[in-house]
């Protein structure tokens, strides 16, 4: 009988582990038997709510999950952690990820979202870790302003409309440069919007699901929103973290669009949520005066607030993920209905 050699676990390092995607990615990798290190930044209040459950969950009993302090605006912390861990795979999910906020804190957004990726790639290069693979969380926000409402793929030209988008283009191109100039296995996942019950509360889907449930339960009177006519291609974060891993296992480093190829407006998203909650919603007026009225009570429950409009808006995003479907054998399992069902259920459960 031949000797059975236990294969060493692969080691992954995640920047942005405390975020929506980071939390799903840890769960995914632990189930694949990885040893996972996550980087959290210092904050004055707890920022680990999305991952705390992993430490004492039976689902992850044999886990190998460790948290280290670090910050992608601090080169020395990046260098030290990569040097100590020497991971097989690095996932850079860290960013100041809110598009509207990037107009208010442009310099910090560029520092974390653009230069963060550069700092990690520089550390890989200077430590000569040529076996370490790198994943960059690129974004459909990079496509920005498009001349036509055609779906976007890997060859679509970028025209970012926010400092966040500009920063992501920098990180995206830097990733390609380090691949081509230094031979690093560096990949970009150009992910379209993806949501979940763990989505941050100031992104529109979570804000709508949370707000309408609170209104239904009479805990909130009005939900204030910005542009109702932006169109997005919304998927589920759980599906999208699987694509990140598949991108890193592909035979060569490359860039990939990950999407559902199904687009709806913010207004349609509201209508679908309202219908699931049995709120009889009708719309009145136009422009800034547009309101959503609960027909059963005749109360205004949705108002437009100028403060949520952006100096630059992205009107239309719909991704063509044919390359990922054919070459990575990836496709989304959730659709818009199952995504909304899960988000609404989680909000209702919260109030039980
Ligand atoms: P998220 O929930 O906002 O998570 C961002 C993560 O980055 C958090 O863990 C955050 O830490 C961390 N972070 C922020 N600044 C940092 C810094 N200076 N140093 C270290 N960590 C820092 O975002 P997400 O939705 O999970 O998205 C993950 C990544 O994919 C982001 O880069 C985002 O830009 C990109 N992306 C997202 C989407 C989407 O639709 N969700 C689509 C395309 C691309 P705290 O928890 O302490 O804030
Ligand atoms: O939910 P959002 O803030 O997402 P946005 O701007 O598309 O960005 C998200 O997706 C990107 C991928 O394309 C990521 F890279 C990025 O990190 C982030 O995860 O806004 C979606 C749409 C926008 O057009 C916005 O103007 O909803 C519109 N909107 C209308 N009212 C609102 C609101 N957005 C927010 N956040 N809050 C509102 O009250």
Oligomer: single chain
Parts with pLDDT < 50 across at least 5 consecutive residues: none
Find the CATH superfamily of the domain at 11-198 and 234-262 and 315-334: NAD(P)-binding Rossmann-like Domain
Please summarize the sheet with the most strands: 7 strands, parallel
Please report which band the strand proportion falls in: under 5%, 5-15%, 15-25%, 25-35%, 35-45% or over 45%. 15-25%
CATH topology of the domain at 11-198 and 234-262 and 315-334: Rossmann fold
Summarize the amount of helix as a percent range. Answer: 25-40%
Distance between the termini: 57 Å
The order of strands across the largest sheet is 3-2-1-4-5-6-11
Q: What can you tell me about this protein's structure?
A:
The structure is a single chain. This protein has 352 residues and is α/β, with parallel strands linked by helices. It has a domain at 11-198 and 234-262 and 315-334: Rossmann fold, CATH 3.40.50.720. It has eleven helices and 15 strands. The protein has helices spanning 20-31, 52-55, 75-85, 99-104, 106-126, 163-182, 204-216, 237-249, 266-276, 322-328, 336-351; strands spanning 11-15, 35-40, 65-69, 89-92, 133-139, 186-191, 194-195, 223-225, 231-232, 235-236, 255-258, 264-265, 281-284, 291-294, 299-304. Helix 1 (20-31) crosses helix 8 and helix 9 crosses helix 11 (336-351). The termini are far apart. The site of NADP nicotinamide-adenine-dinucleotide phosphate (NAP) has 25 residues, from helix 1 and strand 5. NADP nicotinamide-adenine-dinucleotide phosphate is lined by residues 15-16, 18-22, 41, 43, 47, 71-73, 93-97, 112, 137, 139, 191, 193-194, 200.
């Amino acid at each position: 009988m031949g000797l059975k050699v236990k294969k060493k676990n692969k080691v992954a390092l995640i920047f942005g582990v405390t975020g929506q995607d980071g939390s799903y990615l840890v769960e995914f990798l632990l189930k694949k038997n990885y040893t996972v290190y996550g980087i959290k930044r210092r904050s004055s209040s707890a920022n680990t709510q999305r991952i705390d459950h992993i430490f004492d969950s039976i689902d992850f009993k044999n886990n190998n999950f460790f948290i280290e302090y670090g910050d992608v605006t601090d080169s020395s912390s990046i260098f030290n952690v990569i040097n100590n861990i020497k991971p097989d795979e690095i996932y850079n999910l860290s960013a100041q990820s809110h598009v509207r906020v990037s107009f208010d804190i442009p310099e910090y957004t560029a520092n974390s979202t653009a230069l963060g990726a550069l700092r990690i790639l520089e550390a890989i290069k200077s430590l000569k870790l040529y076996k370490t693979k790198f994943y960059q969380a690129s974004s459909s926000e990079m496509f920005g302003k498009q001349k036509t409402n055609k779906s976007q793929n890997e060859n679509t030209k970028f025209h970012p409309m926010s400092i966040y988008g500009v920063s992501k283009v920098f990180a995206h191109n830097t990733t390609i440069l380090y691949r081509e100039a230094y031979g690093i296995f560096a990949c970009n996942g150009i992910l379209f919007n993806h949501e979940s019950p763990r989505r941050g509360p100031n992104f529109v889907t979570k804000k709508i699901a949370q707000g309408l449930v609170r209104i239904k339960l009479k805990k909130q009177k009005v939900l204030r929103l910005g542009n109702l006519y932006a169109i997005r291609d919304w998927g589920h974060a759980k599906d999208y973290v699987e694509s990140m891993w598949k991108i890193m296992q592909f035979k060569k480093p490359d860039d990939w669009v990950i999407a559902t190829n199904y687009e709806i407006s913010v207004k349609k998203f509201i209508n679908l949520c309202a219908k699931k909650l049995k709120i009889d919603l009708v719309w009145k007026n136009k422009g800034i005066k547009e309101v959503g009225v609960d027909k059963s009570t005749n109360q205004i429950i949705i108002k437009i607030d100028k403060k949520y409009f952006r100096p630059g808006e992205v009107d239309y995003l719909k991704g063509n993920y044919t390359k990922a479907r054919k070459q990575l054998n990836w496709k989304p399992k959730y659709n818009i209905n199952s995504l909304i069902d899960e988000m609404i259920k989680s909000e209702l459960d919260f109030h039980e």
